[in-house]
Amino acid sequence: MVAIPVAGLIGSPISGAILGMDGLFGLGGWQWIFILEGVPTILLGLLAFLWLTDRPEHASWLSEEEKRWLIAKLEGERRRASRVKHMSVWWVLANKYVLIMALVYAGASGASTSLALWMPQVVKAFGLTNFQTGLANAVPFGIAAV
């Protein structure tokens, strides 16, 4: 969970600096953000898809001892997990705990999205450069990470 605000802390100044590349090779700053931040993400996702497995016994990067430990740990957790009776979708959606958690999640994601999308526009209106806006935008994410 800390990775989310840390990404904003690190990414905001980087995005601000990339926006400064506006006009380079005829591309806008926003286009450079898509290229320089999107392409590595896609390549890393493809690498993870091709290299990672869904079972520890198939993970070639784990030693045999690590595989045995992880398999035993997962099996122990599976045995300890309590069984939940089968419920219909409507029954689950009417559950007060599900509704409370949905409200909490909606609030958290709404606040995070608002910060990520609109705060840079508000900060930029104070007359800062793109890079300065990125640095100022990083402050709330740094506080959230702490």
Shape assignment: extended
Fraction of helical residues: over 70%
Q: What percentage of amino acids are in beta strands?
A: under 5%
Q: How many helices does DSSP assign? A: 6
- The tally of beta strands, per DSSP, is 0
Helix/strand-derived category reads: mainly alpha
N/C terminus separation: 11 Å
Write structural notes for this entry.
There is one protein chain. With 146 residues, this protein is mostly helical. The protein has one domain (3-145). 73% of the residues lie in helices and 0% in strands. The chain contains 6 helices and no strands. It has helices spanning 3-19, 29-51, 64-80, 89-93, 96-124, 130-145. The protein starts with a helix and ends with a helix. 9% of the residues are buried. The mean pLDDT is 89.
Q: What tags apply to this protein structure?
A:
146 residues, mainly alpha, extended, 6 helices
